[in-house]
Amino acid sequence: MAEDCAIKSADIVGGSSSEIVIMSTLTINLHLMMASFYKPTEKRHKVILEWKPFPSDHYAIESQVVWHGLDPEKSMIKIRPDDDFIITTELILRTIDEHAEDTALILLPGIQYYSGQLFDIPRITAYAQARGILVGWDLAHAAGNVELKLHDWNVDFACWCTYKYINAGPGSIAGAFVHERHGQVEFKNDSGKPSYRPRLMGWYGGDKRVRFNMDNTFIPTAGAGGYQVSNPSAIDLASLSGALSVFNKTSMRDLRSKALVLTAYAEHLMDQMLAESSDETPLFRVITPRDPAQRGTQLSVLLREGLLENVSQALEENGVICDKRKPDVIRVAPVPLYTRFEDVWKFMEVLRGALGP
Q1: Would you state the pLDDT for residue 357?
Q2: Which residues of this UniProt protein bind pyridoxal 5'-phosphate (predicted)?
Q3: Of 15, 92, 308, 334, which sits 20 to 30 A from 195 (CA to CA)?
């Protein structure tokens, strides 16, 4: 079942099924990946991250730094956004240049959860790797949302959850990508002991051909599957398989094409709402980049201070599912898999009423 889900995830993340492993949850997988890919030395010990990632990412990175006996104040390089909540690619590249000699790892989001900004994954990855830095991506808000080509972009590793755009249900099983070059298992001599990238080892990551030999020589499954630790839940896999089967009736390219126009339509209606308002201080502003190439389906709407709770309550009372992210943001996501233009229009009418006369 896990292998079936990996095959069904290939188009969603742009990797071969052998580079994908379905296991655990997002933060656990981040820890498993950093256990293998974050190997600080006296010279290279820094992790470059964003200033305000989703809290669990910050916790994971900070705890890995502390685990290695390092000081987070010195080993965590946080990139701050500008006044419009945007972290430009140029700023990221400048930060890489500034810390290139002592950085071990970059871990950034594919899409920033608060602003909805889509990062330039291929450019940032190539730029950092050219300077000897390993690159990982948290794709929690990108997987199932935008087209990804992790193999072609040469990404070292990536992790994602499946309960957002992939629709597998609350707390559903997560996924990870490990580029094929990091999943190789080689036997270089006659000792019978394999050579592979060090990682946290577990029985379920062992090659099935010898797994039941029950000896103490770990021979990992080639590919991302060798990074597993424990067996996944069959119930969780069934839930994910059902969700992925819907994706497999279309393609991420077609979904992205629809998403671009759906999101543009939502943006147009919100622009119209602002233009018609007589308030001196706007009731809201969209902080997600206006360039469609720099965003997914998410539009982050920064409400005027003090409006968040009342607007959220009014949306809920009108049967609208739209989450809030403090301070003052609601995230509007016209997901193309199941959202119609009519749904976008209806949402905007509810939002008008929620914002008041």
Answers
A1: 64
A2: 26-27, 54-57, 138, 141, 163, 203, 231
A3: 15
